[in-house]
Write a structure and sequence with these properties.
About 40% of the residues lie in helices and about 25% in strands. The protein is built from 8 helices and 14 strands. The strands form 2 sheets. The protein has a 6-stranded antiparallel barrel. Strand 5 and strand 6 form a beta hairpin. Helix 1 packs across helix 3 and helix 2 crosses helix 3. It starts with a helix and ends with a strand.
Length: about 375
């Protein structure tokens, strides 16, 4: 009974039939209860699908009506009738070409609707269904110009003269000595600089790019960078529970941006077990950004979002960071110095504002150049 009442409330909410006070109460309930929010999203999608189906049925009815009318007047014939009537067809075409054009238009529109449904519900390539969340080249160039203007006399730009900015995204420290992790697709170029929340640029070295896992490691090599003795957060090996509250920090803009959501599926795109699905807002520039749980532990790295659904974002699970660093330690002595933050996060039991203030100092904007 309660489920029926809830569905009735959701329908009234989506149809705009709630009073202002009732709507405010429902929206507050939705924001606090992930399961109700998910039901609203699913019901809205269901209604859209039903509306589309109704449109197709209407077009089919129109087609049937036009076909019946043309058949009754003898303008078209069934497949059982003789086909040797070429002269008659030509006469009919000259007389009824306007009617045929209308019928063809209706058929074309119906075909478009059916094609759109097929594209929506059938599997497509990753390129069309997923959007990488690295920043566009023009956006990064504009950002670079703004940053240069702000810093003008304070510091020289760190991007080499003559270099072209190719892409951008987010990175965060995995070791206070300057080791950062980001997505491999963020590093479209031969070099990169990183920028902190105050706009200060730092030279960095690309240590490794693993296209298979879509992870990359940078090292800040700049005398102006001050190492951080203890990172405020830890990296968690275990994945969060379904429905767990999560938050992110990243650079879809020139300033750091906070977003909050929850874990909506334990696997990623098409059941990928190395990633998970989040319900939150993410935009180009969030790629490589950390995903934190409520205790301030890193549980993932944002990579992509689904193009055909709002707020469906995918993140690599944080245990991929451990796998990558452990693998690199066996082949490169440099990585033996890397100490990933483990144990209890110092952000635990802090309010969200305090957690963000501590963590944002370790999250950087990445600008890749060639």
């Amino acid at each position: 009974m309660e489920d029926i009442l809830l569905l009735n409330s959701i329908e009234r909410y989506l149809d705009g039939r709630m009073l202002d006070d009732e709507r405010s109460f429902f929206e507050e309930l939705r924001s606090k209860n992930p399961s109700i929010d998910e039901m609203v999203v699913e019901h809205k999608l269901f209604q859209q699908q039903m509306d589309t189906y109704a449109d197709i049925r209407n077009f089919k009815d129109i087609l049937h009506s036009v076909h019946s009318k043309l058949s009754s007047t003898g303008e078209i014939r069934s497949s059982e009738e003789p086909e040797n009537f070429g002269g008659k067809v030509i006469q009919l075409w000259n007389r009824y070409k306007k009617t045929a054009a209308i019928a063809a238009s209706i058929a074309g529109i119906t075909a478009l609707f059916i094609s759109a449904l097929a594209i929506y519900f059938s599997p497509a390539t990753d390129k069309s269904e997923l959007q990488r969340l690295s920043r566009m080249i023009d956006e990064v160039k504009a950002s670079q110009q703004i940053t240069n203007n702000k810093l003008n006399e304070v510091a020289e730009p760190k991007i080499p003269k003559g270099a072209t900015v190719k892409a951008g995204g987010t990175a965060f420290l995995i070791d206070g000595k300057g080791y950062l992790i980001t997505n491999a697709h963020v590093l479209e170029g031969s070099g990169a600089i990183v920028v902190d929340k105050d706009g200060h640029e730092y030279n960095s070295t690309i240590l490794t790019v693993d296209r298979k896992t879509d992870l990359a490691v940078l090292k800040i090599d700049d005398k102006d960078f001050k190492p951080i003795k203890n990172l405020p957060y830890s990296i968690r090996r275990m994945e969060p529970d379904l429905g767990a509250e999560l938050f992110t920090l990243g650079y879809p803009r020139d300033e750091i941006v906070y977003n909050m959501g929850y874990l909506s599926a334990k696997t990623g795109y098409k059941g990928d077990t190395s990633s998970c699905q989040l319900s939150l807002t993410a935009n180009p520039g969030n790629s490589g950004g950390p995903v934190f749980n409520k205790n301030g532990e890193v549980v993932g790295i944002i990579t992509t979002k689904q193009t055909q659904s709002e707020d469906v974002v995918f993140a690599l699970k944080s245990n991929n960071i451990f796998r990558l660093i452990d693998s690199l330690k066996t082949t490169d002595t440099l990585f033996k110095k890397v100490k990933l933050p483990k144990g209890t996060s110092t952000l635990k039991n802090m309010d969200r504002v305090s957690q963000v203030k501590k963590a944002e100092n370790c999250v950087f904007l990445v600008k890749a150049y060639k």
